[in-house]
Design a protein that fits this description.
Helix content is 79%, strand content 0%. By secondary structure, the protein is an all-alpha fold. The protein is globular and about 55 Å long. The C terminus is likely disordered.
Length: 332
């Protein structure tokens, strides 16, 4: 009886611990999906010329929302002191690089190719988790990751709308996204800054340098002279993008807190399944070719296989001291 009761108690304890993982993953996937569509509309449909200015709006929204929430005691994070920049480094630099490269790449590529090339974030995250966090993954997970990359290579190789600038920006965005996920996982210790502190101080430290970059490149001037500021629908979508920018950053931190950085990255890749196929149907900027379509599907199949393995629990990383136990499982 005592063993049965212990098992029931253990099962009961597992339910609430699993629920935040699932909810945070769904929240992140939803925010990530919506912001790609809204940013694509702003930067492509409306031809908004200032992705850096849009990033400033998202940072400003993050600062305002969290500051007002702190004043009203809705959220809590430590007040500023001299140790905070040291605790955060290098996240602020990664944060602004991720913002600028992500927004710039969205306007340069078709939605399907953008989502395919973003898959390179997955192996980069896996590599950084191994190097920085000392984690190890089974061979089945590694094979799934390289399946995603194979599909991405095939699809990109036959991209008839090849854009070197767009490819450069999106691959830089992959690097920054992977580094952001891994370092965020390392920095969100509740005993230190916590989730809200990381988000707030990241935005505070980088909004001024980003404004300077925007002025020096002419990005700010282009934004202020943009013709659609009197268009209610455009302004609504701009504000929506700023709010979604905050929600995406928050959901990323939340998902990384309850899951691994690699799982958070793969959730984003699975989200891209729907984005890619929607882009084929309604985006208007997808150029069909057999090789490209095959590559897209291989890429998606690799992501779905990872999801299946993750649901089975095979993606649970092992620490270096467990490597001897992990290797036999990888070979099986």
């Amino acid at each position: 009886m005592s063993a049965g009761q212990a098992a029931e108690e253990a099962a009961g304890a597992a339910v609430p611990s699993a629920l935040p993982k699932v909810l945070s993953a769904v929240f992140y996937g939803t925010c990530s999906f919506l912001i790609v569509l809204v940013n694509k509309a702003l930067l492509s449909a409306y031809s908004f010329p200032s992705p850096i200015f849009l990033g400033i709006g998202q940072m400003a929204a993050t600062i305002l929302i969290l500051y007002v929430s702190k004043l009203n005691k809705i959220v809590h994070f430590p007040d500023f002191d001299k140790s905070i920049p040291v605790k955060l480094f290098p996240l602020p630099l990664i944060y602004v690089g991720n913002h600028i490269s992500g927004l710039s790449s969205t306007s340069k590529l078709s939605l399907p190719m953008f989502t395919v090339l973003r898959k390179f974030t997955i192996p980069l995250t896996l590599l950084l988790e191994i190097i920085i966090l000392g984690k190890r993954y089974p061979l089945s997970i590694v094979v799934s990751v390289f399946g995603i990359i194979l599909g991405a290579f095939i699809a990109a190789w036959s991209d008839l709308s090849f854009n070197l600038e767009g490819y450069t920006f999106v691959l830089l965005n992959d690097i920054f996204t992977a580094a952001n996920g891994v370092y965020t996982k390392q920095k969100i210790d509740p005993k230190e800054l916590g989730k809200y502190g990381v988000l707030f101080y990241n935005a505070c430290f980088m909004v001024v340098p980003t404004v300077i970059i925007s002025f020096s490149t002419g990005d700010f001037q282009q934004a202020t002279h943009f013709q659609h500021w009197t268009n209610f629908l455009f302004v609504f979508q701009f504000i929506l993008s700023c709010i979604l920018g905050f929600l995406l950053m928050y959901s990323t931190v939340l998902c990384s807190h309850y899951n691994s950085a690699l799982t958070t990255t793969v959730i984003g890749a699975i989200k891209n399944v729907s984005v890619a196929y929607i882009g084929m149907l309604i985006g208007g900027d997808y150029i069909f070719s057999i090789l490209n379509f095959i590559g897209l599907n291989i890429c998606m199949a690799g992501g779905l296989r990872y999801s299946f393995l993750a649901l089975r629990g095979n993606s649970k990383p092992t620490q270096p001291e467990d490597e001897e136990n992990a290797l036999p499982e990888s070979k099986s």
